[in-house]
């Protein structure tokens, strides 16, 4: 089966389901590691609703969905964060679809989308416990840098110059 990647409206049912799965996973991982329990349902709903992805629309952003055959399997988003810098966000692949090349394909498609938005470099942040993400970014040529934001949960920051 082959992967394809296509732009998707941030508020489509597919995009909303992917966002919910992504946020639930990363939030639960943090709470389980630091506090020994999953995310409280009310907090989960509040945070999912507060971060809709409305900034992932042209001309300043783009949300992409990875399809494995005819099944939505993952996402990646980019948003301009400066005149020549874009931020990579919402990189996620459903657990049952991992290990099939989708994450790297989504990141490369996001790099293309960032270039199309006028970006010359891509930045991102992640956490220490998201070791799979950190390994992916390093494998794809992202260099770990100092902080570029003060996000409470960010522990690692990466940057990559985008080739012309």
Automatic annotation (TrEMBL):
Coiled-coil region list: none
Positions of the N-acetyltransferase domain: 17-163
Source organism superkingdom: Bacteria
Chain ranges passing through the membrane: none
PROSITE patterns on file: GNAT (PS51186)
Keywords: Acyltransferase, Transferase
Protein name: GNAT superfamily N-acetyltransferase
The organism's taxonomic lineage, starting at the top: Bacteria, Bacillati, Actinomycetota, Actinomycetes, Kitasatosporales
